[in-house]
Structure formats: structure tokens, C-alpha cells
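Attaching the record inline, Q. Sequence:
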Amino acid sequence: MSHLKIKWTKSYIGCPEDQRATVRSLGFKRLYQERTVKNTPEIRGMVKKVIHLVTVLEDAQ
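Structure, as predicted:
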């Protein structure tokens, strides 16, 4: 199964609570942190919801 490497690049101050919860559920604890997560439909949906706050760096294998 492939993986996604994502980076939290923009603060969620002023964003709705559901977007804050999505960032936290992706596993981020602090700004500019990078995470490698499995490429599943659920994760891709979460990334799509907060795409204005995160950057998808690469499709890690």
C-alpha cells in the first residue's frame, strides 16, 4: 500500500472546529510537522478537507 507524505504549513487559527479536529486527527501536534500516512480513501478525504492548511509533499512508496 502506498503512503502520503504531508506537511502542516498554515495555522488553523480562525478555522472551524471540524477543520481543527481534522488536522489533529491526521496526527499533527505542531506547525510545520511532517507525517507519512497510509493512502486510504479516508485519509485522502481528510486531506481534501484541510488542503488549504497542509501540503502534500509526495506519494511515498
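The helical segments are 17-25, 41-49. The chain has a mean pLDDT of 93.

More tomorrow.
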